[in-house]
Amino acid sequence: MRGRLGRECLYVPSCRLGLYVALRHWCPPGGRVLMSPVNDDVILFVVLAAGLRPVMAPLDPLDASIDVAAVPESVWSGLSAVLTTNLYGNPDPAPELAARCRASGIPLLEDAAHAIGSTVGGRPVGTYGDAAVFSLSKHTGAGTGGFLAVRDAGLRTELAGARDALLHPVRAGAELAHAVRPYAEAAVRGLRLVRAARAGLRLLGKEERAGIRMPLRPGELRTALAGAPGLDPFHSWVRVDLHDYRLTPGRARLRRTRRLLGRLGATLAAHRTGTEKLLASRWAAPGAPVRPLFRVPLLVADRDAAVAALARARVTTGYLYDPPLDDYAGEPFVDPSPAPGPARWFARHALPADPLRADLVLEVLRASGTRPAPPRGG
After folding, report:
1. Are 147 and 136 in contact (CB under 8 A)?
2. What is the pLDDT of residue 291?
3. Is-cis flag, bond preceding 29, omega within 30?
4. What is the DSSP code (8-state) at residue 352?
């Protein structure tokens, strides 16, 4: 990854832990961070755990990138940092954001979890900011790991120390579970037991998401905020979907991650091929450039009906981010966007399609009569 980005890269067991390390290093407690409201709720809780106030940015409704020109001057003057999302691999306008951050004397931090292989302004995503975090569980399918890329290579030792202070010791049971999980998941899918498995989790009280967003639990969250900065008070939120996010990786986990990372070139090529097909469909945003997107946000009139149609064809639709974070958390915990309409429209109509299953996705959408999203306000 150093060779790919031309930056010093530090391995972390998860992208969310790498982001926490970066936020704690570059942002003073109590600072305000501009970020997208169309994002995973886990990222919101990571920002809160770092002792920071999330400030929701206005977005472009077609790809949910930050609309730099729509951020009021009064907001810029009070920021401590900007955090990009690069949602589904679609880049935020990093050149413009980097210039604005330099002028304001604040760091630009890039969340590139979805964006290995994406470029903007002729450079890879993750090479504009002071730091960037990447996930190895997305394009590679490793299910674990990430890395923190930094502009100043001299910070590696300090950041590695901050990472190590947060790690939990390697556990043999967790390593074994990680090794057998891909085979168990394949067996569940092959036997068509996905619904039964989810019903079992609900019955046992182990399902962490009954809907798209996890329960906010505002009373508990207010108590946790009194202990910020710190991960421990926010553990029950930050761990959702990835309980081993702070776990020191064992040899088997690292070997598998390296092996899958070695196939990255072929994986990105396959994503690019599928992306091209999806972007040529009637549900794609007009004029979107072809990139090896992690997911392609098709824009449909009835997102929930499209999700249900895909589910009947055994296509699981993940990575939905609805409602936007300012509607989900509210003013007690975030500064709402000054222009929330575009984010709400995108969150309601975006259908993240896996480019590796492009042919089946398009076949299902055609057969189900899925209509493109109406124009904003329609």
Report:
1. yes
2. 93
3. no
4. E
Report the SS3 class of residue 292.
coil
Name the token pair of 77.
């003057």
pLDDT tens digit string along 277-323? 999 999 999 888 999 999 999 999 999 999 999 999 999 999 999 99
Residue 207's pLDDT is what? 58
CA distances from 348 to 64, 66, 103, 329, 373 (A): 12, 17, 35, 17, 9
Pairing of strands 146-150, 32-35: unpaired
Where do the domains of the chain lie? 263-367
Cis, bond preceding 323 (omega within 30 deg of 0): yes
pLDDT tens-digit series, residues 41-95: 999 999 999 999 999 999 999 999 999 999 999 999 999 999 999 999 999 999 9
pLDDT digits (tens, 9 = 90+) for 342-362: 999 999 999 999 999 999 999
How buried is residue 112: exposed, middle or buried, by Cβ count under 10 Å (0-12/13-18/19+)? Answer: buried
Pairing relation of β-strands 32-35 and 123-124?
unpaired
* E strands present in the chain: 8-12, 32-35, 53-56, 81-84, 108-111, 119-120, 123-124, 131-135, 146-150, 296-299, 350-353
Q: What are phi and psi of 238, to 5 degrees?
A: -70, -25
Q: What does CATH list as the number for 263-367?
A: 3.90.1150.10
Length of the chain: 378
Pairing between strand 108-111 and 81-84? parallel
The structure tokens listed for 132 are: 């960037």
